[in-house]
């Protein structure tokens, strides 16, 4: 039986057995501890497994004392298995922290995904050096490989890379791959040039009136060449303007991680007008489906059998326009 299955069986016993619950609470009070309950894992939430193992490891001494006075065939983990659980919790802690942080983020979240994967990879490699359990070391090696694989995939998705580059807290520091970083910078310059072109109000082939009066009456003979040269000059100018704006933004010092990137762009929209428009587009991308799930959960509480006659506009106000949510 694997360690997780053994722990799940033990936790299930203390959650379903009345005598087991009471005895565990009594033992904790006798030890001068607060009476904590066991946490059972949920199949659809990986971090619930982490929480289950963490609570069990915290209560390992009360659990052992409670089982000694109960009539049950459920056995606790051995000391070796507890050491393995401790090492596994140490390795999984960065994943748990990242999951909690992204789930709690209400504003800018997509830009954090790639930097978090880089930090997770760095943290696991550091912690793996001090592991004593072979099982935990194997877990760490597998997780490092998986994180690198997912990081490569994430750094190939523009909806993740563009927010990271446009977040003044991270910019170029969030990427694991230097090649993917250069691709993203090139993409940002291209998108910035598109914004500049779309914002131009002067028709492409239209010449100023003074130049039109001075031009010789040659009909449309030179129209193709003149329009091509004019278009090429404008395109070159737009590309240069986009490159200058992006390079100037990237050369600035990064914001502190605790600062608000939206406040930054609100203050810098005159200095970087085109990047500001791109920031409005990309920084609103969510990192996960957690915000949507929360809205559905809140909707289930608002629109119930007893409150099924609410006006749709009222429901919309309660769910989306209430600033206290």
Automatic annotation (TrEMBL):
Transmembrane segments: none annotated. InterPro entries: HATC_C_dom (IPR008906), RNaseH-like_sf (IPR012337), ZnF_BED_domain_contain (IPR052035). Residues 245-324 form the HAT C-terminal dimerisation domain. The keyword Nucleus applies. It is found in: Nucleus. It comes from the Eukaryota. Keywords: Metal-binding, Nucleus, Zinc, Zinc-finger. GO terms for cellular component: nucleus. One of its GO terms (molecular function) is protein dimerization activity. This is Zinc finger BED domain-containing protein 1. It comes from Merluccius polli. The lineage of its organism: Eukaryota, Metazoa, Chordata, Craniata, Vertebrata.
